[in-house]
Amino acid sequence: MAKLSDLIEQFIKQLINDTDGTIEIQRNELANQFNCVPSQINYVIDTRFTTERGYYVESRRGGGGYIKIRRVSIGHEGKNYLMHIINSMGDSISQQSAHVFINNFIDHNVISEREALMLKAATSDKALSAVPVESRGIFGPVS
User: Where would you find the membrane-spanning parts of this chain (predicted)?
Assistant: First the structure.
C-alpha cells in the first residue's frame, strides 16, 4: 500500500498535468480531502516539489492562504529551465542532487535513459574516488 505522502504527491502531480503546469491549492482543503493535518501537505510540498525537481512554489499563509505550484517547462522556456537548474546548484552539488537533476532531464525528455546512466556513472562517488573529498562537487576550471 502506498504511503500517504506518495498519494498526495501523485494527486498534486495529476492536478499539474491536467492544467497548464500551474496549480493553486488550499492547504487546509487538501488536508481535509486526505484526512490528514496541514503539516503533512507542507511536508510533501517541501520535499517533493523543490527547485531541484523542477518546480517553483509560492505560498501565502493565513485565512485566505494558498500554495501555488508551477512546473518549469523546458519546451518554450528551455533557457529559463537551464538557468533554474544552474541557479539551484550553487558552487557544488552532491551525488544525490546530481541524480535528481538527471532524473528530471529524463522526465523532460532532455536526455535518454542511456545518457542518464552514463551521467549517473560519471557523477557517482565511486567514479570520483580519486578526487580528494574536499575538491568533489566544486565547479571550476579544468586543468
Answer: none
The burial of 72, by beta-carbon neighbours within 10 Å (0-12 exposed, 13-18 middle, 19 or more buried), is given as buried
Asked, for residue 140, whether it belongs to a domain, the answer is no
pLDDT in tens, 73-83: 665 555 666 67
DSSP class of residue 69? E
Could you say which residues of the chain have pLDDT below 70? 1, 62-64, 73-82, 136-143
Question: Count H helices, E strands: the chain?
Answer: 6, 3
Provide Rg for the chain, Cα atoms: 18
Is 110 contained in some domain?
Answer: yes
Q: Which of 55, 71, 87 is the last residue of a domain?
A: 71
Q: What domain count does the chain have?
A: 2
Give the helix/strand (H/E) hosting 114. Answer: helix 113-122
Four-point Cα dihedral 88, 89, 91, 93, nearest 10 = 150
Q: Using alpha carbons only, give the angle 15, 29, 49 rounded to the nearest 5 degrees.
A: 45
- Domain span at 83: 78-135
